[in-house]
Automatic annotation (TrEMBL), chain A:
InterPro entries xref list: Fe-transptr_FeoA-like (IPR007167), FeoA (IPR052713), FeoA_core_dom (IPR038157), Transcriptional_repressor_C (IPR008988)
Name recorded for this polypeptide: Ferrous iron transport protein A
SMART domains registered for this protein in UniProt: FeoA
SUPFAM superfamilies documented for this protein: C-terminal domain of transcriptional repressors (SSF50037)
GO molecular function ontology, one term from the record: transition metal ion binding
Organism: Myroides marinus
Every Ferrous iron transporter FeoA-like domain range: 1-75
Automatic annotation (TrEMBL), chain B:
Any Pfam family the entry gives: FeoB_C
Protein name: Ferrous iron transport protein B
A GO CC term assigned to this protein in UniProt: plasma membrane
Record organism: Myroides marinus
Highest taxon of source: Bacteria
Listed GO MF terms: ferrous iron transmembrane transporter activity; GTP binding; metal ion binding
Sequence intervals crossing the membrane: 321-343, 369-389, 396-413, 433-454, 475-494, 500-521, 560-583, 595-615, 622-641, 661-678, 698-724
Coiled-coil residue spans: none
Length: 77, 725
């Protein structure tokens, strides 16, 4: 499933970055720790619903919806 | 003076630290400060050099490299504060500065500053840098915060695992700096040789690819530094590295001929492996780091501090309170500034104008100065300067510390987070909220800050619209006009509140223009889609109030004030001259004012205001003094002003009287507020825009567009006003 579909309170494990996004974007995701196996959950949502701040590796990263759609995750149990 | 036992103790290494500031000369060693954004690099830099790099709790505060120096034991060190970088593999403008210096600048020691509470991500940069050089010292900064968050680190174990010195510090409290110095010294002088490490765990084909390309590189030059890292970059088609090899920057033995085959091979692997390769490398790095962290760090994720951050965020970015709180903060800061600067402003003008000015005049008379010399120096240069100090100093001395407190707390990135949706709708970058906020202090600083925006299109939009952030130099105009013409419309107990609301209204209008102009530009001259953007929200950090007030007074307020004075003095001279040199029966100033009057009235302004804006191009700060001085001259009433081209001292009430006498109405006041928001940037900002864009065309657009808006808005308001009255 896509990271953008994650709900508040759910924990997910990152599977990877969607193929077909530009190389810099792909690399930037990796730099921030969006690598296979990383745990991620929603920290909070901005007043206008977009962007959403995610907590990953103990840091808080905000992503716009269309970018969060590029991250593939599975729910952690 | 007697020294305490601690100060003379051998173990007290900072006793041997001499901060040398930015003086140049010969250096024994070069030190680079690298690390992810917002880890305290600039704070450490300041502690070592005694310089005053700006620091702030948001990623991207430092955008250019700064150099300083210090002496420790017998060696002199040059130290470079680099912009924060998440990795060495990305190619954004500010991050490239850092990467290129580590690679091409060949520092003797690279100090990697990491956030002790977030090692899982921060150590991945350490691992990458170790791939380039073994001369690394890891600085575990923000230890105080990590402790508060319940993070426990086995420092020795970590050092053993990484193979480099690891020094825990709390830079803001100056803790651990002396240990850091000792480690830097040992690595620089070769007393301690850190291990050479490479990234392990890259799997299968990707590893083979790196190996093959690295071998090829080594066959050309066996002494090439960090071949496997170069190989990794070549496989990712990093054009900077390709160019550096072709141009012999990295090695004299490599040239465009013999490197070709290697680059072809790397390209071949790039085609074959695609994104799998990057995934593989990053995966290996993070896996390696996770292993290290697991064995050396204990975290209690249920700590109170985490929950507090979460709670604050749930309020300040919530649907219900997010926007109201932003407005409240803005209004609060403005209100405090307006209320707070009232009294010191009048005290200062009493001192400088009513007390000191007659003394100076009298002194000049007793020294038999000719009238034109004392007029030029005292009525022109001195008075303009005194006015600017009286008008500028109090609001700045209140605004800058308040803003810095908010910045240090970590609120600014939340503003960006809240506003991002709107910026996206306008086709702009989310970090524009940060550069816009910086613009409230100074537009030139806001323009430089746009370097955190990677997409050139969105960076241009941020530059062009920065002038719509009402900078500090324009506040006195707003505050005075609001109190005289708008606050006066209501009962006096309400007047401060109402004038504050009027200024907030102007600021919000400016933000509205920022969105509108961004949207307009991205539909016309700068067409395009909003680009990829990530923003890290830093943890909230309780600011150190007294220290913040002290440093923002000394560093920011005085520097900005100095700039204002430097511009005010010559402007004062010019004003005096144009008022006292006559052509025919009128002074140059009067000729111009009468010439501009029809245009002024058409816009709901007047000739004096327009001339003041021409004189004040170098600095917005002097608009109000110039307006008052010119008005007095036009009125030609000796009982008000001191004579032609003399700025006089008056209280708000008297200023109001004089302006009313000169025919000002509420419309003039309102339109002056609007025009002060919507006109060309000051000359410093224009110059900065030119330096950042390198384009006369965009500099012209950024300078002229606001005037165009100003003329249109003032015209429309004036016409509506005339219709209604
Ligand atoms: N609590 C605490 N705060 C610190 C410490 N060191 C720095 N800070 C704060 O952390 C924030 C970031 O510090 P900077 O020195 O600006 O960080 P930087 O690494 O230069 O950041 P960039 O220039 O954005 O890369 C500031 O608000 C500092 O006051 C520390 O040891 N403890
Ligand atoms: Mg910095």
């Amino acid at each position: 499933m896509k990271l953008s579909n994650l709900a508040i309170g759910e924990k997910a494990i990152i599977q990877g970055i969607e193929r077909g996004c530009p190389a810099e974007v792909h690399q930037r995701f990796l730099d921030l720790g969006f690598v296979h196996g990383a745990e991620i959950h929603i920290h909070n949502i901005s007043p206008l619903k977009d962007p959403v701040a995610y907590s990953i590796y103990n840091t808080i990263i905000s992503l716009r919806r269309e970018d969060a759609e590029r991250v593939l995750v599975t729910l952690a149990n | 003076m007697a020294k305490s036992a601690c100060e003379i103790c051998d173990l007290n290494a900072s006793a041997e630290l001499k901060k040398l500031g930015d003086i140049s000369g010969k250096f024994d060693y070069t030190i680079a400060l690298a690390g992810n954004p917002n880890t305290g690099k600039s704070t450490i830099f300041n502690a070592l050099t005694g310089l005053k790099q700006h620091t702030g709790n948001w990623p991207g505060k430092t955008v250019t490299r700064a150099e300083g120096s210090f002496q420790f034991k017998d060696s002199k060190y040059k130290i470079i504060d680099l912009p924060g970088t998440y990795s060495l593999m990305s190619t954004s403008e500010d991050e490239e500065v850092a990467r290129d210096f580590i690679l091409f600048g060949r520092p003797d020691v690279t100090v990697v500053v990491v956030d002790s509470g977030r090692l899982e991500r921060h150590l991945s940069l350490v691992v990458q840098i170790q791939e380039i050089t073994n001369k690394v010292v890891v600085c575990l900064n923000l230890m105080d915060e990590a402790k508060r968050h319940g993070v426990e680190i086995d420092v020795r174990g970590l050092s053993r695992d990484l193979g480099v010195p690891v020094i825990p510090t709390s830079a803001r409290n100056k803790e651990g700096i002396s240990d850091l110095l000792v480690a830097i010294d040992q690595v620089a002088t070769g007393k301690y040789i850190p291990e050479h490490k490479t990234i392990s765990g890259i799997s299968g084909e990707s590893r083979e690819a790196v190996q093959m390309v690295a071998d090829k590189l080594l066959s050309i030059d066996a002494d090439l530094p960090s071949p496997s890292w170069l190989a990794m970059r070549l496989i990712q088609q990093d054009s900077n590295i390709q160019t550096a090899l072709v141009n012999q920057t990295l090695s004299a033995k490599v040239d465009s001929e013999n490197i070709k085959e290697t680059i072809d091979l790397a390209n071949h692997y790039h085609e074959k492996l695609g994104f799998d390769y990057s995934d593989n490398v990053a995966g290996a790095i993070f896996a390696q780091v996770s292993k290290t962290v697991k064995s050396t760090v204990k975290t209690d994720t249920n700590q109170r501090a985490f929950r507090v951050d979460r709670m604050i965020d749930n309020v300040v970015t919530s649907k219900r309170f997010g926007f109201p709180i932003m407005l409240l903060m803005l209004g609060g800061i403005l209100w405090l500034t307006i209320i707070g600067s009232n009294y010191p402003s009048s005290a200062l003008s009493y001192l400088l104008l009513e007390e000191l000015y007659p003394l100076l005049k009298g002194g000049a008379d007793s020294l038999n100065f000719p009238w034109w010399l004392s007029g030029f120096l005292i009525d022109g240069v001195y008075l303009a300067t005194a006015w600017v100090i009286a008008v500028m100093l109090p609001p700045m001395a209140i605004f800058f510390p308040l803003f810095t407190l908010l910045e240090d707390f970590g609120y600014l990135p939340r503003v960006a987070f809240n506003l991002d949706r709107l910026f996206k709708g306008a086709g702009a970058h989310g970090k524009q909220a940060l550069t816009m906020s910086m613009g409230f202090g100074c537009n030139a600083a806001g323009v430089v800050a746009t370097r955190i925006i990677n997409s050139p299109r969105e960076k241009l939009i941020a530059i062009i619209t920065n002038n719509f952030s009402l900078c500090n130099g324009r506040w006195p105009t707003q505050i005075l006009m609001a109190s005289i013409f708008i606050g006066a419309l209501v009962p006096s107990y309400l007047s401060h509140t109402v004038s504050t609301l009027a200024v907030v209204g102007i600021v919000v209008l400016g933000i509205g223009f920022t969105f509108f102009t961004s949207w307009m530009l991205s539909k016309t001259m700068l067409k395009g889609q909003a680009s990829f953007f990530t923003l890290e929200l830093p943890p909230y950090r309780p600011p150190r109030i007294l220290q913040t007030i002290y440093t923002s007074l000394i560093d920011r307020t005085l520097i900005v004030l100095w700039r204002a004075i430097v511009f005010a003095a010559p402007a004062g001279a010019i004003i005096w001259l144009i008022c006292n040199i006559s052509i025919g029966d009128k002074s140059i100033a009067l000729w111009t004012i009468h010439g501009l009057d029809p245009i002024g009235l058409f816009l709901g302004l007047n000739g004096v205001i327009l001339l003041a804006y021409i004189v004040a191009i170098p600095a917005n700060e002097i608009v109000i003094p110039t307006v008052l001085m010119l008005t007095a001259m036009v009125l030609g009433d000796a009982s008000i002003g001191e004579g032609a081209g003399v700025m006089f001292e008056v209280s708000d009430g008297e200023i109001a009287n004089i302006l009313h006498m000169a025919g000002w109405t509420t419309l003039t006041g309102i339109n002056l507020m609007l025009f002060s928001l919507l006109h060309n940037p000051c000359s410093t900002t224009i110059y900065t825009i030119y330096k950042e864009t390198n384009s006369a065309k965009w500099t012209a657009v950024a300078s002229l567009l606001p005037i165009l808006f100003g003329v249109i808005v003032c015209f429309v308001v004036a016409q509506i006003w005339y219709l209604l009255t």
